[in-house]
Amino acid sequence: MMTYLVIGLCIILLIVVIYISAKPISMGIEARRNINHSSNKEEEHSQDLNDYDQYNKEASSISNEILKLNDLKQKGLLTQEEYEKAKEKLLS
């Protein structure tokens, strides 16, 4: 009879321990998900910034090339037709 009482008490204690530890475990899992989610957002934001920087570099290089073409046209090394074709090629 005493063994049944001890086994019952152990089972009750096990259930209490599981109940008490379930909340911190679930909070830890949720925190891990939030960390992963926030790191994914940071990666996306970083990628957006890299894309923006790349776009700015391309835009500035295109404008620099057009300025160089304009200088060549003004110096008389390019005709208006050649200038227009080269500019169109850069912009497309």
Describe this protein's structure:
The model has no long low-confidence stretch (mean pLDDT 80). Helix content is 93%, strand content 0%. The protein has a domain of 44 residues. The protein is mainly alpha-helical and 92 residues long.
What are the main properties of this structure?
single chain, mainly alpha, 93% helix, rod-shaped
Count of individual helical segments: 2
Q: For the CA atoms, what is the radius of gyration?
A: 35 Å
The amount of beta strand, in percent, is under 5%
First-last Cα distance: 91 Å
Please state the average pLDDT score.
80
> What is the multimeric organization of the chains shown?
single chain
The largest pleated sheet is described as: none
Task: State the share of residues found in helices, binned by percent.
Answer: over 70%
| Class from helix and strand fractions | mainly alpha
The backbone outline, from C-alpha atoms, is rod-shaped
Unreliable spans are none
Number of strands: 0
Give, in order, the helices and strands: HH
What's the short story on this structure?
With 92 residues, this protein is mostly helical. The chain has a domain at 49-92.
Task: Tell me the layout of helices and strands.
Layout: H1 2-75, H2 80-91
Helix pairs in contact: 1-2
